[in-house]
Specification:
With about 775 residues, the chain is an alpha+beta fold. The protein is built from 21 helices and 12 strands. The strands form 3 sheets. Strands 9-8-7-10-6-11 form a 6-stranded antiparallel beta sheet, with helices on both faces. Strand 7 and strand 8 form a beta hairpin.
């Protein structure tokens, strides 16, 4: 079928390109609006107890403060007349934004000691910005612009800075956009230069950019449509551009290399296009399917941050594959031998010859597989060892560099304010409590827990199980429908102490049988980790089963899929271990200007899925060629050596180019983006070198011909529905055969030549 498709595209090449151009115009018009549909946030489980607590607080108490203004007295203290006037003016101006803000808590309006720094030179104004993730971010951005910096119009007595969750989201979103622009400005020129070296000609080097551009624009259109229907994270844009460019390079490299090889073997352009589509095209379609399957696992998670990457990744992989199978044959048909036009002086002949380097590597590994494999396994296990002490967290101000204003506000509050009123555990009931005695009893019980500084309630403030006198309580914390308790703790919200306190509060008996929900940043972290841990086995099962089935259909073996899962898991563990060593333990952190913190839970899952999908991409490239040679009757060693010789250059070049694109994110000012880019890039390089170059040949040689084992029923099933490239030779129409030959060997091929191109035809 793919051979016939290649022939059809060859005959209608101009029509295919015209239709593609029209579709691209439509995709560009639609896709440019995608940015307005995408959301910030999406890290929390919408079904968690902490999320229900947040909704109850929003409904009954005007929500949790999410924007903080830190007011610094330029002279004197915050109680001086000039500073008090400026602080009061700021409070009144913020409260006037009724369309954006529904509550403002200020030191000058409510002289709570926790809102004043220890030295008296700074004070806080706490604001609750209303709306969903996208609205909160846009409204907070406007408020920050109005009331911080030179244009704040609050006089010379104070300097105002913004912090809190909303300010962090504003700066993270801004930095993501800037980081993406910087990464692309670094990566694209480098990739173009490297493509010239990889392809050896200007014309061929531009082909991957065409495929990548099609995939990116079409996926932007997809994200616009999905963003109009459901929540889609703005962070999915970065994956779309990087994965679109990377897969465009991967698939174009394979396609052009195979086309050159067919031309060198004596095919005319028409036959070369058809055979390339039938062989490389089949590999590309299968490879894209494995990438999509790996990303499908992200759909089991309730956080739309993770689901968004599935939307983007599945779309870009499938679109890149379809563009390669339809558009690339059309381009090659029109270019013909001119695909090598603009050849660089130092470039090779463009014949698609086997790599002598990778042939020697494979030959050496297959001669001494144990000697070759043991050091590699040892290195990978050592690299993975930091995972034994890995901890996980959710994004907060520490993902930004210390110089960022919202990070500075967070650090200042933690260092200079006693009893941090901005980092508390929220407890809210789903119904009213019968009496003030019930309220004070529950508050008293929570204040007795180790690590709790105080508990504020409508019945008073409590510390160490006793009321703080004189304190009549805050009436705003209770109403006829619910009660709210603010639990101030002496630990950072992402610390294990804070997480243990969440668990301890939830373990307390509900007050008078009324359900109490625990929320706040610490509870969000506990619930996020629980949600991801609970769904992770299902995601892993989906990936493992789907990968096993797909690789079985491709190879006809049950051992090959198991081998792929084991060695790919080893490479992923090594890459993630190195990231833990850097980003959690802090080694080399000063080199890339990040703060050591727990590994980001969602981004770690994303890294694993993306890296696994890309590793399966290269798995298919190599395995398809080995299987093709095996089906032609070559012995085991020849299949491995020649398979790696024919694909090693393609895989290593593609991985190197993709790694450049991913490593460019190391310049980001957001640490979880740096972790993702460096981790995914490292995983790709490990897979393309140590895994494909050493472990796959070594394991194959050690297992021997048993690597192709499958029980008899499965062998029968594979013969019926298998997807392999090798096997029975494709019978060509004599009129279509090059040089007037029928279905015998083509010009330039000798009987028994292991590189003869054959394709399964299944009835």
């Amino acid at each position: 079928m793919l051979y016939k498709l290649g022939g059809l595209v060859h005959r209608r090449a101009r029509l295919v390109l015209i239709v593609t151009g029209l579709l691209l115009v439509v995709a560009a018009v639609v896709g440019v609006n995608a940015f307005g549909k995408l959301q910030g946030g999406g890290f929390d489980d919408p079904n968690s107890a902490s999320n229900r607590a947040a909704k109850q607080i929003d409904a009954q108490f005007g929500g949790r403060d999410n924007l903080i203004f830190l007011v610094h007295a330029n002279a004197g203290t915050v109680d001086s007349a000039a500073v008090r006037a400026a602080g009061t003016q700021l409070t009144q101006d913020l409260a006037a934004h009724a369309d954006s803000v529904d509550r403002v808590t200020s030191y000058w309006a409510t002289p709570v000691p926790a809102l004043r720094s220890r030295d008296g030179t700074q004070a806080l104004v706490l604001v609750h910005v209303i709306g969903g993730d996208k609205d909160v971010t846009s409204r907070a951005k406007a408020l920050i612009a109005d009331y911080t910096g030179p244009g704040a119009h609050l006089g010379n007595a104070v300097t105002v800075s913004a912090g809190g969750d909303a300010a962090v989201n504003v700066q993270v979103t801004n930095q993501v956009g800037k980081s993406l622009a910087i990464a692309e400005s670094i990566a694209v020129p480098l990739i173009l230069i490297l493509l010239l070296f990889a392809f050896g000609s200007v014309v061929a080097a531009l082909l991957p950019l065409a495929i990548g551009g099609i995939a990116i624009l079409a996926t932007f259109a997809e994200l616009f449509i999905l963003g109009s229907i459901t929540d889609v994270s703005v962070y999915s844009i970065s994956l779309t551009t990087q994965l679109g460019l990377g897969l465009g390079i991967d698939y174009a490299l394979l396609m052009v290399s195979r086309f050159r090889e067919q031309l060198a073997a004596g095919d005319d352009v028409k036959s070369a296009v058809a055979r390339t589509t039938a062989t490389a095209g089949r590999t590309i379609l299968f490879s894209a399917t494995t990438v999509a399957v790996a990303l499908t696992a992200l759909l089991v998670f309730p956080q739309y941050f993770l689901r968004s990457f599935a939307y983007a990744g599945i779309g870009v992989a499938l679109i890149a594959a379809l563009a390669t199978v339809f558009v690339m044959p059309a381009l090659l048909s029109l270019l013909g031998t001119r695909v090598n036009a603009g050849r660089l002086p130092w470039a090779a002949s463009g014949r698609g010859d086997a790599s002598r380097f990778w042939e020697r590597i494979a030959g050496g590994v297959t001669r001494r597989p144990v000697v070759a494999a043991l050091p590699v396994v040892a290195v990978l296990l050592i690299a993975a060892s930091p995972l034994l002490k890995v901890t996980f967290g959710t994004p907060d101000a520490t993902v930004l560099r210390p110089g960022m204003s919202s990070r500075q506000v967070s650090d200042t509050i933690a260092a200079d304010f006693a009893g941090n009123a901005t980092s508390t555990i929220d407890v809210v009931t789903t119904a009213p409590l019968p009496s003030s005695t019930a309220v004070s009893g529950y508050a008293r019980e929570m204040s007795s827990l180790p690590g709790v500084v105080r508990v504020d309630s409508s019945a008073g403030t409590f510390a160490s199980g006793h009321p703080v006198a004189p304190d009549p309580g805050d009436p705003a914390l209770g109403n006829a429908a619910a009660q709210r308790f603010s639990v101030t703790i002496n630990a950072a919200s992402d610390s294990q102490t804070a997480q243990n306190l969440v668990t301890s509060i939830r373990a307390l008996p509900n007050p008078d049988g009324v359900t109490a929900l625990v929320g706040g940043p610490s509870a969000d972290l506990v619930d996020s980790k629980s949600s991801i841990a609970g769904n992770l086995p299902w995601a892993a099962l989906i990936v493992a089963l789907a990968t096993f089935v797909l690789l079985f259909l491709f190879t006809g073996s049950v051992i090959q899929p198991l081998r792929a899962l084991v060695v790919n898991g080893l490479s992923l563990s090594a890459a993630l271990g190195v990231m833990t060593w850097i980003f959690q333990q802090g080694h080399l952190a000063s080199w890339i200007d990040v703060t050591a913190r727990p590994m980001d839970t969602s981004m770690t899952v994303l890294l694993l899925c993306i890296a696994f999908g890309l590793s399966m991409d290269y798995e298919v490239f190599l395995t398809s060629r080995i299987k093709e040679l095996h089906d032609q009757g070559a012995d085991l060693r020849t299949t491995v050596v020649q398979g790696l010789a024919r694909t090693g250059r393609i895989v290593s070049t593609a991985a190197g180019l993709l790694a450049v694109s991913l490593f460019a994110f190391g310049t980001s000012t957001v640490s979880f983006l740096q972790m993702f880019g460096l981790g995914a890039g490292l995983a790709v390089l490990i897979d393309a070198t140590l895994i494909r170059g050493v472990l796959v040949p070594a394991v194959t040689k050690l297992v021997g011909d048993g690597i192709w084992y499958a029980p008899a029923p499965l062998r029968w099933l594979h013969r019926r529905v298998g997807l392999s490239e090798g096997g029975a030779p494709l019978l060509l129409d004599p009129a279509e055969a090059p040089h007037g030959q029928g279905d015998g060997p083509r010009g330039g091929e000798q009987a028994g030549d292991h590189e003869a191109q054959r394709v399964d035809v299944h009835p």
